[in-house]
Design a protein that fits this description.
alpha+beta; five-stranded mixed β-sheet; 12% strand; 14 strands
Length: 399
């Protein structure tokens, strides 16, 4: 990166401004929701940083440039008043940068390192996945997202936060209201009374947990005030439910729609771990992460003014052919599948990535054990979503 007068640069040849962005102008939300791959590939090849009016932001599609943006929190920040999640739940590790971000993140990051996750959660998560799958087994059919992936995600989040005496349905109710409020605020709407009530209920329960437990929430009070612990619990809940549900559902989709994939993992269960990574590469549960430019900056041939929204397309980066040959193919044996960016990079890399991997692998292992002859049923839908991508309906049957 070289300094310019009043700006920064990642690019020597600047040719594109908002008005000069050629390819982004005609992109529609319908394309980005249903089949974004071809349009993102065109951007990545010809205009890797492109102004997309329908998103009111710059879309970054080339893998190396996506990494540059995510690693440079000084130039591309989340700490902006437009960040909708912070408006709903308050400042948290999701919406802060620098020292404040580290202060909010560190208590949770320490609790969810890989050794701690495997030691604390392996048996619990595998048991929860097995119970869900085995409970459905006699019926011979299920809808993966609502019957397995979603309920498992809620149970795991409640366990991860050590929430005291709370029913999964209650956690899901809080989550649904908070997500709906974030969606409304991001579109210029109001938070709403029901969402405020949900945040208040979560607040009371987190405070009670801090007072009586010794888990991650109680430990976080060593460096965070109670309202800050509540805000971070809310974003952990948000990420842990939404993205884990999508991650698990998409893995089932890829294994059941790719010829030979299910037979391959049944014959060699050691392939399951790489299947999780390859599914994440093809369909990251969060297809994008948003940043705001803090200065005038030149990136990938584009001149980005201070304050503009910069959208890192993880979907596009994960299908960059310079890193992933045959990028649109689900390859169970892809040697570098784990180098995907689905968990982001830099200071805002996902805190719960190890727990999410354990959760998804446990779900598919349980289904492979408990649902013989597993296959798609009629009515299954491919992954969709502008931001959060997953199959919305995934019915399956077994013998």
């Amino acid at each position: 990166m070289r300094s310019l007068i009043g700006s920064r640069s990642y690019s020597a040849d600047v040719t594109i401004s908002r008005s000069g962005s050629r390819l982004g102008a005609d992109i529609t939300l319908a394309e980005l929701d249903a089949e974004p791959y071809a349009v993102l590939a065109r951007l990545r090849e010809d205009e890797p940083v492109s102004w997309v009016p329908v998103l009111n932001g710059w879309v970054v599609t080339r893998r190396d440039l996506c990494i540059d943006v995510m690693r440079d929190a000084e130039t591309f920040t989340v700490d902006d008043p437009r960040f909708s999640t912070a408006q709903v739940v308050g400042p948290s590790m999701l919406s802060l940068d620098g020292e404040e971000h580290r202060r909010h993140r560190d208590p949770f990051a320490a609790a969810f390192r890989r050794p701690e996750v495997l030691a604390r959660f392996t048996d619990r998560v595998q048991a929860a996945a097995g119970a869900l799958v085995n409970g459905l087994a006699p019926g011979g059919h299920a809808e993966v997202r609502r019957d397995v992936a979603g309920p498992l995600a809620v149970q795991v989040v409640a366990a991860a936060l050590d929430l005291l005496d709370v029913e999964p349905a209650v956690v899901l109710g809080w989550y649904d209201e908070i997500v709906a409020a974030v969606d409304r605020v991001s579109a210029g709407g109001e938070i709403g009374l029901r969402a405020r009530d949900a945040v208040a209920s979560l607040d009371r329960h987190v405070v009670e947990t801090m007072g009586h437990g010794d888990g991650v929430l109680a430990q976080a009070t060593a460096t965070l005030a109670p309202p800050e612990v509540v805000s971070n619990a809310a974003v952990m809940m948000f990420g842990g439910i939404e993205t884990s549900e999508g991650m698990t559902t998409s893995l089932f989709w890829h294994l059941l729609t790719t010829p030979g994939a299910l037979d391959a993992v049944l014959a060699d269960r050691s392939l399951v771990a790489n299947a999780v990574e390859e599914s994440l590469r093809l369909e990251p549960a969060a297809g994008r992460v948003d940043r705001y430019s803090t200065v005038d900056v030149e990136l990938g041939g584009a001149r980005i003014p201070r304050g503009d929204l910069v959208i890192v397309s993880l979907t596009a980066a994960n299908r960059d052919p310079t890193t992933f040959p045959s990028p649109d193919t689900f390859d169970l044996r892809r040697p570098n599948a784990r180098t995907h960016l689905a968990f982001a990079q830099g200071p805002h890399a996902c805190v719960g990535l190890h727990l999410a991997r354990l959760e998804t692998q446990s779900a598919i292992d349980a289904a492979l054990d408990g649902w013989p002859g597993l296959r798609l049923s009629e009515g299954a839908t491919a992954p969709t979503g502008v931001v959060f991508r997953k199959p919305r309906v995934l019915p399956v049957r077994w013998d």
